[in-house]
Amino acid sequence: MGGEVDVDGLRFDAEVSRQIEAVYRTPDVVEQRRAVRAALALRPGDRVLDVGSGPGLLAAEMAAEVGPDGRICGIDISDSMLAIARTHADVPDGPAPEFELASVERIPHPAESFDVVVSTQVFEYVDDVAAALEEVRRVLRPAGRVVLLDTDWGSVVWRSSDDERMARVLTAFEDHLADPHLPRTLPDVLVKTGFTPTHQQVVPILNLGYDQRTYSGGLIDIVSDFVPGHGDVTQDEATAWADDLRGLGASYFFSLNRYLFVASAL
């Protein structure tokens, strides 16, 4: 893949991968990983697959929890992301996470290889969610758990001086997703593919006051780089949109809901 991969037009090259890693280090996403790890409830010796492991921060944190007798494997479709993840693979008192180039549509592991599969911000990019969940169920041991976190982008509340432009930018940004509203239907798909849902919760993000070191502060560059040419958004409009948000200062407001689902394989 030459270090670059397009997901519905969003290119996960080295630059975007670095931007995403910076966003994943913000307090907002650190707290999100805490919520995911609490839902995972990992035990020493657990074997865990991280689907769409990204910069590898969650994998490293999980490795510390499963201990030296556990195993952490990560798959991602971006060579650039995997290169970053491998820099985080030295985990004291835990197994070194193993990272591999692969997608959820074809997981390169035998049946019943894992106690837990976790995936954050990935399934909303997947065209055939049911088929992907069937593949997840294949690699889970009987009664194994899957933990999924995805965003409903219809939940965004983002203050702007131009609400009409904001609406067009957000609609254009949805072009990079297969299903920007996946959490609304994900529980049904889990049941239809042989899982029993056991836990659901909202994982909100709230940013008050502009700060580059927040989730939405980092998201501004990713959105403004992507949206020109999508819908009817021009480069000038994307730049004006980003400048407007940064100029709000203390009046800046952003809120978004992510939804976490835990299910057991039958």
Kindly report the CATH topology of one domain: Rossmann fold
How many beta-strand runs? 10
Total helical segments:
9
What would CATH call the class of one domain? Alpha Beta
CATH superfamily of one domain: Vaccinia Virus protein VP39
Helix coverage percent: 25-40%
* Main structural class: alpha/beta
Rg computed from alpha carbons, rounded to a whole number of angstroms: 18 Å
Shape annotation? globular
What number is the mean pLDDT?
Answer: 93
Low-confidence sequence ranges: none
Could you give a short description of this structure?
This protein has nine helices and ten strands. By secondary structure, the chain is of the alpha/beta class. The two termini are 36 Å apart.
